[in-house]
Design a protein that fits this description.
Order of helices and strands: EEEHEEEHE
Shape: globular
Strand order of the largest sheet: 4-5-6-3-2-1-7
Number of domains: 1
Organism: Mannheimia succiniciproducens (strain KCTC 0769BP / MBEL55E)
Number of strands: 7
Protein name: UPF0339 protein MS1092
Strand content: 25-35%
Distance between the termini: 29 Å
Structural class: alpha+beta
Helix content: 10-25%
CATH topology: PH-domain like
CATH class: Mainly Beta
Radius of gyration: 13 Å
Family: Belongs to the UPF0339 family. Duplicated subfamily.
Largest sheet: 7 strands, mixed
Keywords: Repeat
Length: 113
């Protein structure tokens, strides 16, 4: 099965962030903003370590009732979050996709693009 990849990029304010993308290029997890490349790379390592275990995911709903999930590290800090989904089942599919793709070691660095 083809794995996805991490896309390391710069946010508009010059901070670093990453997306985990599935093999179909869809973003399945978005990180917080990091002040340094090294911190963002540590965030990727944390997703690789924690993203394969369903107990590290927490389901939530936004104010419009749309479900989404967050991925937490073992210290309970948020590592990344999903988009908003149309149903809890769709959000669960998103978790399954993160679990299937988190271990990838492919990192596409587009900070220089």
């Amino acid at each position: 099965m083809a794995l996805g990849w991490y896309e390391l990029k710069l946010a508009k304010d010059g901070q670093f962030m990453f997306n985990l993308k599935a093999a179909n290029s869809q973003v399945i997890l978005t990180s917080e903003l990091y002040r340094s490349r090294a911190a963002a790379e540590n965030g990727i390592a944390s997703v690789q370590k924690n993203g394969g275990d369903e107990k590290n995911f927490e389901f939530r709903e936004n104010k419009n009732g749309e479900p989404y999930f967050i991925l937490k590290a073992q210290n309970h800090q948020e590592i990344g979050r999903s988009e908003y989904y149309s149903s809890k089942a769709a959000a669960q599919n998103g978790v399954n996709s993160v679990m299937n793709n988190a271990a990838t070691t492919v990192i596409k660095d587009i900070t220089k693009s």
